Each structure stands twice: as structure tokens, then as C-alpha cells.
């Protein structure tokens, strides 16, 4: 199975929603306009493709000098456990460079995954949750 990775191609909203539905990543998939807005305002998007099928995505917001917030990492369930997520994170880190840290908020089901691919668990994060 050959997976290609791309920084230049932003998938369609329909492709993104299909991937989110399949991967189980909780996002507002019934609100196409909101998904489009999310991607319109993201700075770094890395995609994984099997032929013409979107099988993985990494979406980040960064200042390119200090921090990079990895907002989404979604892998199609049929393609999990092949190293695609790890590769997307690796490509994200390479793109933002050595001066920039990568941080994220994990969904509960992925808490055991991130340490396996190089993340350190932190207990010093704070959030103001969205109202909608």
C-alpha cells in the first residue's frame, strides 16, 4: 500500500467530513460551513492519500517560531496502525522546525497513542470550553 503525503492539497469539505465520520474524531460534521471555516483559518495542513482517497489529515495552527497547536489528527479506520498518524505528526514537526514545539489536546480514546509517537504528557493545560 503506497501512501502519499501532501502539504499543498486541501481536501474538499466532503472529503474531510467523510474522514472525520470514519475516524471517529468528534467534529461538527453536520455543519459544512463550520468545517470549511475551520480549514480556511488553519495554517498548516498535511494530508495522507491512498490513490485519490483521503486517508489521513493533520491540521495545525502555528506561529512558526514558538508553538504549533496540532488541532486535528484523523486517520481512516481502515488505515490505522500503519504509521500514517506518526508520519503526519513527523511531517508537521519537520515543517514547523526545531524552534517550535507541537502541542495538542487529545480525545480520551487517544491518550495512550500520543506517548507512543513521541509526545510527553503534560498536566498544565487549561481550557475555556466552547459553548456550541
UniProtKB/TrEMBL annotation:
TM region positions: none
Domain N-acetyltransferase: 1-132
Pfam families assigned to the protein according to its UniProt record, in alphabetical order: Acetyltransf_1
Gene3D superfamilies documented for this protein: 3.40.630.30
InterPro entries listed in its UniProt record: Acetyltransferase_Butenolide (IPR053144), Acyl_CoA_acyltransferase (IPR016181), GNAT_dom (IPR000182)
Protein name: GCN5 family acetyltransferase
Origin species: Kaistella antarctica
Amino acid at each position: 500500500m503506497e501512501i502519499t503525503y501532501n502539504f499543498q492539497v486541501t481536501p474538499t469539505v466532503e472529503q474531510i467530513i467523510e474522514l472525520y465520520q470514519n475516524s471517529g474524531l468528534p467534529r461538527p460534521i453536520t455543519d459544512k460551513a463550520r468545517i470549511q471555516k475551520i480549514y480556511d483559518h488553519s495554517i498548516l495542513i498535511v494530508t495522507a492519500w491512498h490513490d485519490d482517497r483521503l486517508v489521513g489529515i493533520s491540521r495545525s495552527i502555528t506561529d512558526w517560531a514558538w508553538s504549533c497547536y496540532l488541532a486535528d489528527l484523523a486517520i481512516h479506520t481502515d488505515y490505522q496502525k500503519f504509521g500514517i498518524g506518526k508520519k503526519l505528526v513527523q511531517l508537521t514537526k519537520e515543517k514547523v522546525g526545531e524552534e517550535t514545539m507541537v502541542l495538542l489536546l487529545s480525545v480520551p480514546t487517544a491518550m495512550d497513542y500520543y506517548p507512543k509517537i513521541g509526545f510527553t504528557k503534560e498536566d498544565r493545560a487549561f481550557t475555556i470550553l466552547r459553548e456550541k
